[in-house]
Amino acid sequence: MPGQGRYDRPMRILLLLVSLLVVACGDKETPSNSASDSGGASDRGGRGPGGAAGLSGGGTDAGSEIAALVPGDAHAVLLVESLDKVEEMVAALAAMTRERIPPVSQQFQGLSRIDPSKLDPFQPIAIALKMGGGLMPDMTFVVPAKDAATAQSLANGKADNVSGSYVAVRRGRFGKAGGSRLVRGMPNAPVAFRADLAALYKLNKSSINGALNTGSAALESVARKEFPGVQLGDAINGLVGWTRGTLEQADLLDVALTLDKGWIDFTMTYVAKEGSKIALAPSSASLAGYAAHIPDGCPLALLFSFDVKKFMDLAMQLGAAQMPPSERKAYRAMMKDSEALMDGLGSNWMMAALFQETLRVVGAIEVRDPAAYTTAYMDFLKGNNKNTNSAMGLTYSVEDPRDVKGRRVFGAKINVDSERLGRQMDVRSRDVAVAVPALFGESGPRIDLAPVSDRMLYGIGGGAIEQALGGDGGSASLKDAIKHAGGNLGFLLHIDLRGFLLQMTKLGSKLGERTPSIEEGAPVPISLYGTRHGKRYSVGLHANLAEAIKVFKKVAR
């Protein structure tokens, strides 16, 4: 096709980088070619060039030979354990997905124009990128030659492009080799990537700020149309300002990826400048303790540390905008009466859901005075029955406090007006009338509250508060996810995919829906998490990828 050649190399770059970043590491116990077949390479134990420590576990420096050849003005560096390992990874991922993935060596040769047969396949490789004004970045490939003669031939006689057995093959304009800060303390994983965010933002500051301004104006236009009467300008400007500030205070971006025995670990870390005043999502060392209220059998759990008051204020404003005009006044009255409750909230919050014979939700929220807050909340429900009923179709029959497992529990039965609630949810009232008992049993939904320590526990559905008070931190996979994420946990979303789908199929069957067949079996954990350690803010994925793919394929049949 005319013009196709212009995009050929950029697409090869994209394909190679995606392959390296998606396919991290095959089964570490899988045997591969022996050292005697590697052209003299005898150390397969994870030691990098120049005697550097291996690329698995903890931060590490790139080997001295690689560090000597990476250009000092590189904007990003990709470091992989070896071509051999990446080929194993491709095979492992292809086996999981049953999809054909082009060999990495073939992609590498097409992009770098280096014959892989001239390289030691068992030693690390680095690719340095420098962004300019063109369609594709300049690239330097720092590769291990299989012998000294090959190293000289790949260097084209340029001695400054050789360090030990390593050769720098340049594709574009770079400054002097060596001295790059990017190769010191890189993420220690089979596939590691580091970008100099500070330099990239400086290089593209004008276009980035222009895009932020354009995006802000577009969001405000949509907000005015979709949410008339709601003042979202401050929230949008705050988001844009936070984004700009985050970029201005950025130092590095680190990415680490591993795929081992079917498990995937992906971590992306934003590193702020020394002394920066940036405030990303708050994190709390105590947040993990909230998981103690999650009972075993919950396939869905969410723990979060954030500004709950701001979130609730915005959510209620948006809710008011969606109300029919005839009911908006009552809803706003309810919002006003809830202001004191909003002021008493802290930053930590937890929710977990499970469906056994009925739907149950357990949760905990940080409050300044748990006993006073719980009483005030029940008074709010009792006093706002009229407004709540008018706005949402729900009223609360508040009960006398009772003792549950040595704790004082405050409860209320939730009465549902099917017609009003159906109107709010834009569904037929008879569907609401069928769904409520199917979800919560013939006794209907209820809410129970219990003050504990620095938090208020809540349970929605019969028996939920008993489970929250007797929770054991959830399943073993949830406990493993919390341990894996590490301290200073800011958020964690944990799903047992198999358990979640099983419970959803049971729920769907009760509602008369056709559901796929899900087999019973071991949990299939998927966790997304965020942590903060000093000026390092990380988000990560920890999941049983192999089993998740199997489950998804069976559901899709």
Number of strands: 19
Q: What is the share of helical residues?
A: 25-40%
**Helix count, DSSP H or I runs of 4 or more residues:** 18
Beta-strand fraction estimate: 15-25%
Q: What is the terminal separation in angstroms?
A: 37 Å
Q: For the report, how would you describe the main beta sheet?
A: 19 strands, antiparallel
Provide the gyration radius in Å: 28 Å
Unreliable residue stretches: 1-7, 9-58
Give average pLDDT, whole number: 80
Structural class: alpha+beta
Shape: elongated
Could you describe the 3D structure shown?
This protein has 557 residues and is an alpha+beta fold. It has 18 helices and 19 strands. The chain has helices spanning 4-22, 64-67, 83-97, 104-112, 148-154, 197-226, 233-248, 308-321, 325-337, 339-343, 370-383, 385-392, 418-425, 429-440, 464-469, 476-485, 497-510, 545-556, and strands at 76-80, 125-130, 138-144, 162-163, 166-171, 191-195, 250-260, 263-272, 300-305, 345-355, 359-367, 394-398, 402-404, 407-416, 446-452, 455-460, 489-496, 525-533, 536-544. It has a 19-stranded antiparallel β-sheet that branches. A hairpin with a 2-residue loop joins strand 4 and strand 5. Helix 1 packs across helix 4. The longest helix is centred in the middle third of the chain and has 30 residues, at 197-226. The model is unreliable at 1-7 and 9-58 (pLDDT under 50).
